[in-house]
Design brief:
- The complex is a heterodimer of chains A (113) and B (114).
- Chain A is mostly beta strands and 113 residues long.
- In chain A, 0% of the residues lie in helices and 57% in strands.
- Chain A is built from no helices and eleven strands.
- In chain A, strands 2, 4, 5, 9, 10 and 11 form a six-stranded mixed beta sheet that branches.
- The termini of chain A are far apart.
- In chain B, strand 7 and strand 8 form a beta hairpin.
- In chain B, the strands form two sheets. In chain B, strands 2, 4, 5, 6, 9, 10 and 11 form a seven-stranded mixed beta sheet that branches. Chain B has a four-stranded antiparallel beta sheet with strand order 1-3-8-7, with no helix packed on it.
- Classes of the chains: A mainly beta (113), B mainly beta (114).
- The interface between A and B is medium-sized, with 26 and 26 residues.
Chain lengths: 113, 114
């Protein structure tokens, strides 16, 4: 079993839809959670960062963490064609020692105009 | 502000040839540095990370090596490339001494081994 599971998609939605992207994880030590957006043939770009459980909002994006269920989500409101990309979740524990993130495999999102 | 550069952007190499990919970071000092590989349709695989000059930790045993000759320079090398080395290579940095481990990525190098 992978430490972080993420549905690969592709997820296709019409412009203006609300998008929900999710990851589940197995390591209860994870405390820091990140979402990255990666356009085709580009490096990942940090979108959201959250610590422990709760919600965080930034414009059209909301990150949600439920540590009791080991489940994190990224919601995109009023989705735009420019949101079409692969979304990667990533997480880490304070005491990893090797200071590295554990990534999901990414969900490919397509927003149709 | 901080920026991270990688070159070359794309590379096509024959099997058995050597490899050298370079990554440099500007606007910060003593960053943690990372090399990842991303195979098509797959997640990021951590290859190496470094917390300082000359300090390299390897995550996956393979025919690749990494070096950090200067504070903000990270080099990925191979003496003889394999077909399986093809992929998208990403360099990343994070702030040293901060436990959040938020990492910032470069634009990547697409390597094709023929």
């Amino acid at each position: 079993q992978k430490e972080v599971e993420q549905d690969p998609g592709p997820l296709s939605v019409p412009e203006g839809a609300i998008v929900s992207l999710n990851c589940t994880y197995s390591n209860s030590a994870f405390q820091y959670f990140m979402w990255y957006r990666q356009y085709s043939r580009k490096g990942p770009e940090l979108l959201m960062y959250t610590y422990s459980s709760g919600n965080k909002e930034d414009g059209r994006f909301t990150a949600q963490v439920d540590k009791s269920s080991k489940y994190i989500s990224l919601f995109i409101r009023d989705s735009q064609p420019s949101d079409s990309a692969t979304y990667l979740c990533a997480m880490s524990a304070m005491d990893t020692g090797r200071r590295a993130l554990t990534f999901g495999s990414g969900t490919r999102l397509q927003v149709q105009p | 502000s901080q920026t991270i550069h990688q070159w070359p952007a794309t590379l096509v190499q024959p099997v058995g040839s050597p490899l050298s990919l370079e990554c440099t970071v500007e606007g910060t000092s003593n960053p943690n540095l990372y090399w990842y590989r991303q195979a098509a349709g797959r997640g990021l695989q951590l290859l190496f990370y470094s917390v300082g000059i000359g300090q390299i930790s390897s995550e996956v045993p393979q025919n690749l090596s990494a070096s950090r000759p200067q504070d903000r320079q990270f080099i990925l090398s191979s003496k003889k490339l394999l077909l399986s080395d093809s992929g998208f290579y990403l360099c990343a940095w994070s702030v040293a001494g901060v436990s959040t481990d938020t990492q910032y990525f470069g634009p990547g190098t697409r390597l094709t081994v023929l």
